[in-house]
Amino acid sequence: MNFVGIDIGSTSAKTVVMNEEKNIIFKSVLPTGWSSIETAKSIEKKLEELGITKNNSKCIATGYGRISVPYADKTYTEITCHGKGAAYIYEDDCTVIDIGGQDTKVINLEGGVVTDFIMNDKCSAGTGRFLEIMANTLGVTLNELSDLAREGKNVSISSMCTVFAESEVISLIGSGAKREDIAYGVIDSIASKVKSLCSRQGSLGKYYLTGGLCENDYILEILSQKLEVEVQAKPLGRYAGSIGAALLCKKLK
């Protein structure tokens, strides 16, 4: 039996297939695009090419577009799946930070179980989508935004709403502010909002980053500075939601 976890976020869709020994035998990530339904169809086609069908697998969907996966046996919330996946990846009591496309989550894990969590408001300028919008406004990629931010300083973006924050950035561009300084302000804004969430949530002493930014060294660096403790990550962290969904498949009858 194969166990399939599908995490359709607002910006990317992650798929993980596990065997009965909880080993990952397939994983993939692709842009969600304009339609979660079309993305789910693409994932189904790929799975069928691999010989993974309804007859020999169980499937759980999670994420922003989880209701768009008609072939899933069940859906679970992102908190449940990210917690389960993070426990598999990090095998530790810890606080997990996930900067997603639509929201940012801070999850406490003890003994592999979610004991508490907090999320930001969807309008808050503390999400991965906000970073993408700001990078596009500055005409750079996310990695280039991070590289620029390393060279910047002394710019603050205070708006809590993405729309107003974008207006701030446009005003800074118009006033002749350096692109490096604006990039610094953008990422500093994200990190400050994560710090605020973590302060409200409370910490278990160790922080791990999951989601699409978990391999961004500068994001890890600035979060570590803000939280005054090393924020760690592993490449598998971006698949935390889909890993958790795949693991939960074992509970299905």
Structural commentary:
- With about 250 residues, the chain is an alpha/beta fold.
- It has a domain at about 1-80 and about 240-250: Nucleotidyltransferase, domain 5 (2-Layer Sandwich).
- Helix content is about 40%, strand content about 20%.
- The protein has 8 helices and 10 strands.
- The chain has helices at about 35-50, 80-90, 130-140, 140-150, 160-175, 180-200, 215-225, 240-250, and strands spanning about 1-10, 10-20, 25-30, 55-60, 75, 95-100, 105-110, 115-120, 205-210, 230.
- The strands form 2 sheets. A 5-stranded mixed sheet has the order 3-2-1-4-5.
- Helix 7 links the parallel strand 9 and strand 10.
- It is globular and about 60 Å long.
- The N and C termini lie close together (about 10 Å).
- The mean pLDDT is about 90.
- Keywords: Iron, Iron-sulfur, Metal-binding.
- It comes from Clostridium cadaveris.
- GO terms for molecular function: iron-sulfur cluster binding; metal ion binding.
- This is CoA-substrate-specific enzyme activase, putative.
- Its cofactor is [4Fe-4S] cluster.
How big a fraction of the residues is strand?
15-25%
CATH superfamily of the domain at 2-80 and 240-251: ATPase, nucleotide binding domain
Extract low-pLDDT stretches.
none
The run of helices and strands is: EEEHEEHEEEHHHHEHEH
Describe the main β-sheet briefly: 5 strands, mixed
What gap, in angstroms, lies between the N and C termini? 12 Å
How are the strands of the biggest sheet laid out side by side? Answer: 3-2-1-4-5
GO molecular function: iron-sulfur cluster binding; metal ion binding
Domain ATPase BadF/BadG/BcrA/BcrD type: 4-248
Cofactor: [4Fe-4S] cluster
Pfam family, one: BcrAD_BadFG
